[in-house]
Design brief:
The complex is a heterodimer of chains A (247) and B (503). Chain A has 247 residues and is α/β, with parallel strands linked by helices. The radius of gyration of chain A is 18 Å and the shape is globular. In chain A, the strands form 2 sheets. Chain A has a 4-stranded parallel sheet, sandwiched between helices. A 4-stranded parallel sheet of chain A has the order 6-5-7-8, with helices on both faces. Chain B has 503 residues and is of the alpha/beta class. In chain B, 50% of the residues lie in helices and 10% in strands. Chain B has 22 helices and 12 strands. In chain B, helix 2 packs antiparallel against helix 12. Classes of the chains: A alpha/beta (247), B alpha/beta (503).
Chain lengths: 247, 503
């Protein structure tokens, strides 16, 4: 199975280890992963700030870069939602591009979605070196993807030596929201502090956060105010569990 | 008092009253108010979970919300027809219908009805439309006593305060706050016991119910087919206001009409569940006209005031879906921003996500530039809305309009133009990455975090640290990985089969 990775601009720069972990995971489960290096950004920030005309050329570029891909997999839920919710609408009135956008949308998957819906992975043979307590932050754009957060939790629970405690107000936004975190930082700050407090309450050592923006936000608050848990993408956890098998 | 612009002889009022219009500073203050956050978690967050739990009891809650949205859309598409049908049927059942173009006219009509019916005292059940028009002040200034009978609204009236939530008007006050308000008003010793406080209000209001000439109510749904109005309350005050007094005046926004009684159960199943996690409110009244000949109970006169106040303009535009709103408050309860700043911050009759759209739509976008921007676009409101208003999409559309109208500072436009240009080409993307990495790694402390971001990004580090980019980007890691894979393939060529990929 040929899979093209859409790493996303944030992951590329700020959490490259997540991108690599996703690649290793996909390869372990039988995928041939390529990385079209001409990719840049899905255009979400311009779109969300009401500048669709600045977003459109970036969307067109994305579609072009991945034209020959069978599957496009991304470790970021919000980028996938941007593509699914808005790419076709961006080219309204341009039937040729609308058609290409429709085809592109049809082959885009978020990482966990791809593992569960397409690869149908079973992680029960995997094991972590040490017993680890996990909790899970439900990233907002999963609402748009139709997932209820449960697929990721199921995957975590399958891994041996992984314990799970649900997070209170798991589905409450962490306060990232792109430029919102800067423009309305007071409100954003209050939101992320709430998220960290709920994380502390679980007693978990790791909070699974499957989006680069959320991870930067929650991680940044953990570092500023101190927290007993680390923030990790599920790809990193799976890749860690796969290590002994790939050596 | 609210801020309404007036100029010389012809007084110009904004459609919605605006209270303390300083969103940024109010939000900053509220964001650090831990007591407020605790109160909100105890009320709105609980109601949100109640909504989820009671909706899950239904066989197809998403299908029901879809249907409710479609009925609303259909009705709005034929609003003129359904309003005329409603009018005909109210009149046929012995009621009177008045169309009010704006808030001033609505108030004038109520005052006129009071004068013609010699009504000196009016009891009122909750109506958001009457908050829009500031009806109480208008009537009081004309010598008509108005008493709010919803306990929350009564407390606010007595304290000269404003509601901060569409459904639960007084969640910003604690029992102690209310105790102080009542001690002052009733001139009785202070108590903060909720049961004692409720009893004080009850005794006072009972007298008012007995003496009132007029009852004023809102309308949850107006049924065109039968000329009925539907009122949902938990306190029974709606029933008291509309059965004892001689005259009943019901005020509604023109978008509240639904086609037939067959449509009503769709909305009744969703309203209380969405608002407060109840399968139905304690009291649901379907009122069709005044008392008929031979009947014992009910008012002599029934008046329905149907108000526009800017709705027809919204109907004609891109934001007509906002008129589907059944004022359930579910979006407020779900909103992570509302949960941190509370209703008062929005400074409007309609707070929360729907208010962030309605307030600029009614009053002009140039008057409320922050409301559609103070969102993380998380989508909780859309998920909660029983009539599926795509609030996040409409908020983005409003930002687009703000940009086109020049309400957004031009520096923003320039920023995004530059940003977009930089991402259109691989060379500028890579260069931009390298520059960002260089700059940020200069700013970071020894464990790779930045305490103070420069320039426009400093808002981030006021609240939390910013991660510096690692030395190697993903591209470097990927290149290395792909080289390793190639080497391993060459090494393992003789045993190419049975790599054992799947564990």
């Amino acid at each position: 199975m040929k899979v093209s990775l859409f790493v996303t601009c944030l992951t590329d720069l700020f959490s490259p280890q997540v991108g690599l972990a996703a690649v290793k995971t996909l390869e372990h489960f039988g995928c041939e992963v390529d990385f079209p290096s001409a990719q840049t950004c899905c255009g979400q920030p311009a779109f969300n700030n009401g500048f669709p005309e600045q977003s459109r050329p970036l969307a067109a570029r994305m579609i072009r870069v991945f034209e020959n891909a069978d599957y496009v997999v991304t470790p970021s839920g919000s980028c996938c939602a941007m593509i699914r919710d808005h790419y076709i609408g961006l080219f309204k009135g341009d039937p040729a591009m609308e058609h290409r956008a429709t085809e592109f949308v049809a082959k885009c998957y978020e990482f966990v979605e791809f593992l569960t819906k397409i690869l149908k992975v079973d992680l029960s043979k995997l094991s972590l070196k040490q017993k680890t307590a996990f909790t899970y932050h439900y990233t907002c754009h999963l609402r748009g993807l139709g997932a209820t957060g449960d697929p990721a939790i199921k995957l975590i629970k399958q891994i041996r030596n992984a314990d799970f405690t649900p997070l209170e107000k798991a589905e409450q936004c962490c306060g990232f929201g792109g430029t919102f975190a800067i423009k309305y930082h007071d409100i954003s700050g209050a939101m992320v502090k709430d998220k960290v407090a709920c994380g502390k309450q679980t007693g978990a050592g790791v909070m699974i956060v499957n989006d680069a923006g959320c991870a930067m936000n929650i991680g940044g608050a953990c570092h500023r105010y101190g927290a007993p848990f680390k923030v990790r993408h599920i790809a990193e956890v799976i890749a860690e569990a796969l290590e002994p098998l790939t050596k | 008092m609210s801020q309404n612009k007036t100029n010389s002889s012809k007084s110009f009022r904004l459609p919605l009253p605006v209270f303390h219009p300083d969103f940024l500073n109010e939000a900053a203050a509220a964001s650090t108010d831990k007591a407020l956050h605790a109160a909100l978690d105890n009320s709105v967050t609980k109601k949100d979970y109640g909504r989820r739990a009671t909706l899950a009891e239904l066989p197809d809650p998403d299908g029901l919300r879809e249907l409710a949205g479609l009925i609303k859309r259909f009705t709005l598409d034929h609003l003129d027809y359904y309003l005329e049908l409603l009018e005909r049927n109210v009149i046929a059942r012995g009621g009177k219908v008045h169309f009010a173009a704006d808030n001033t006219e609505a108030n004038t009509l109520v005052a006129q009805i009071a004068r013609f019916s010699s009504s000196k005292l009016a009891v009122k059940s909750k109506s958001m439309v009457s908050e829009e028009t500031e009806l109480n002040q208008a009537l009081t200034s004309q010598g008509i006593e108005v008493v709010e009978t919803d306990l929350g609204e009564f407390i606010l009236q007595v304290d000269n305060d404003h509601p901060t939530h569409i459904v639960m008007p007084v969640i910003h006050k604690t029992a102690s706050d209310i105790g102080r308000v009542f001690a002052k008003f009733f001139k009785t010793p202070y108590t903060n016991d909720p049961q004692e406080l409720a009893e004080m209000a009850r005794v006072y209001l009972r007298d008012k119910f007995r003496q009132a000439d007029m009852g004023i109510s809102g309308v949850n749904f107006a049924v065109a087919e039968t000329g009925s109005i539907v009122i949902c309350t938990n306190e029974g005050n709606g029933r008291m206001c509309t059965s004892r007094p001689r005259v009943h005046v019901a005020i509604m926004g023109m978008e509240k009409v639904i086609p037939s009684l067959d449509d009503l159960p769709v909305f009744l199943k969703l309203l209380a569940r969405s608002a407060s996690g109840q399968s139905l409110t304690q009291y649901t009244s379907i009122i069709t006209g005044p008392r008929r000949e031979g009947e014992f109970d009910g008012p002599d006169q029934f008046h329905l005031i149907i108000m526009d106040n800017g709705r027809s303009k919204i109907l004609a535009g891109d934001y007509r879906d906002t008129l589907r709103c059944i004022r359930c408050g579910a979006c407020l309860n779900a909103c992570p921003i509302y949960r941190k700043v509370g209703g008062r911050t929005y400074g409007s009759v309609y707070p929360g996500p729907i208010g962030a759209l309605l307030t600029p739509l009614f009053n002009g976008m140039e008057n409320h530039k922050h409301l559609p921007n103070a969102t993380s676009l998380c989508g909780a409101c859309f998920e909660a809305c029983p009539v599926k208003i795509n609030i996040p999409e409409l908020l983005i559309h409003m930002k687009e309009d703000q940009n086109k109208l020049g309400i957004t500072p031009s520096s923003q436009k320039l920023l995004f133009r530059l940003w977009s240009w930089g991402l259109k080409h691989s060379w500028s993307y890579i260069l931009g990455q390298k520059m960002q990495k260089l700059m940020m790694r200069m700013l970071m402390d020894k464990d790779g975090w930045i305490k103070k971001m420069p320039g426009p990004a400093r808002g981030w580090t006021i609240e939390r640290d910013f991660p510096a980019p690692p030395k190697e980007s993903f591209r470097k890691l990927m290149n290395r990985h792909q080289r390793e894979q190639k080497r391993n393939k060459k090494k393992n060529k003789p045993q190419a089969q049975g790599e054992g990929q799947n564990v």
